[in-house]
Design goal:
The chain is an alpha+beta fold and 79 residues long. It has three helices and three strands, in the order βααββα. α1 (24-31) crosses α2 (35-44).
Amino acid sequence: MRKSCYNPQNAAHRIEDMPFLLTVPEAAKILRCGKTKIYELAKTEKDFTAIRLAGAIRIQRDGLIRWLEQKMKGGREGD
């Protein structure tokens, strides 16, 4: 019998179904990068929509989408 390669934990999820405020690990999963990179982006990128909430960093889901779209176009918001 052939083994299935499907793993539900690796399945793609619709970003619209994710919470309005993402944790650092959730944002890292979306961008397919490490948590350290998300902390760096939150600190250095002015257009990256991160907020500090009770000492934890949260990333606004819709802001992350806009930021990523702008980066894919090669510009910044407002340019």
